[in-house]
Amino acid sequence: MPERNQAQLSQLVEIILASQKYRHISADLVKRIGAAELEKGRKPKEAVKAAKKKLHQIAGAYLAEKPVYPAWLQTLKASIQSENPQDLKNACREILQQHASTRERLPILHDFYTNILDEVGPIHSVLDIACGFNPLTIPWMPLQNEFTYYACDIYDDLAGFLNSFIKLYQAKGEAWVCDVIYQAPKQEVDLALLLKAIPCLEQIDKSVGERLLDSVNARRLIVSFPIHSLGGKQKGMPKNYEARFYSLVEGKSWQIKRFEFDTELAFLITK
Ligand SMILES: C[S@@+](CC[C@H](N)C(=O)[O-])C[C@H]1O[C@@H](n2cnc3c(N)ncnc32)[C@H](O)[C@@H]1O
Fold this sequence. Notes:
This protein has about 270 residues and is α/β, with parallel strands linked by helices. About 45% of the residues lie in helices and about 15% in strands.
């Protein structure tokens, strides 16, 4: 990139990271999205606008309110110390409501994991890719008593919150900031989750879905897609996403099982 564009890119990154909405987003991701917009020949102001729009589409649109992680951690801590196991589920539910993707999973949460993982052997380790708030659904997952949970997304404040939750839960593992378009996670696990992430990631890079499915180091993967748009419209989405999914796994000798829920279309891949 020419020097003048480098300066424009640094400025674009600075402007975006200074905004309330995007200050916790991976600077590397902002840089990559910003560079792509400048390379299209956009003027700096337009490139900032276009990059913000992309960030909104792939992440910002899912978070309605400003997350209050310290307060949520206090609630989770109190519920974990309570003798009633239902208290923890209730606390998690409240927080899961605050992210559009897990909010629409709440009505199907119990069946989602029970049905999909019914015939799957013991799960000692999970990798949750582009996780959003989904690690808070751990209490519904049929995991072994001692398990390791890895989770990554693009927000550093979310990673901090999830690390505290994993610790509170006395599980092993970690959450970290990633850009899975640039680098796929390498952990070897029993189960990987790629929940409703492919349509977001493919807005930046059309080849990322196939790359992730190939490179993730897990024998089993749950891959899912939304049934409705964020605005609530269906617009033939399940049919289109199903076709997209089958095109991604075409030619692979993997076993595929399909599950349709009211709010989510899911596939279990066994490699
Ligand atoms: C539709 S949400 C799905 C969240 C979660 N998997 C679920 O189903 O509840 C898409 C998620 O992808 C994350 N994301 C977007 N681009 C990403 C990237 N390049 N690397 C990692 N995560 C990304 C967003 O921050 C957001 O949490």
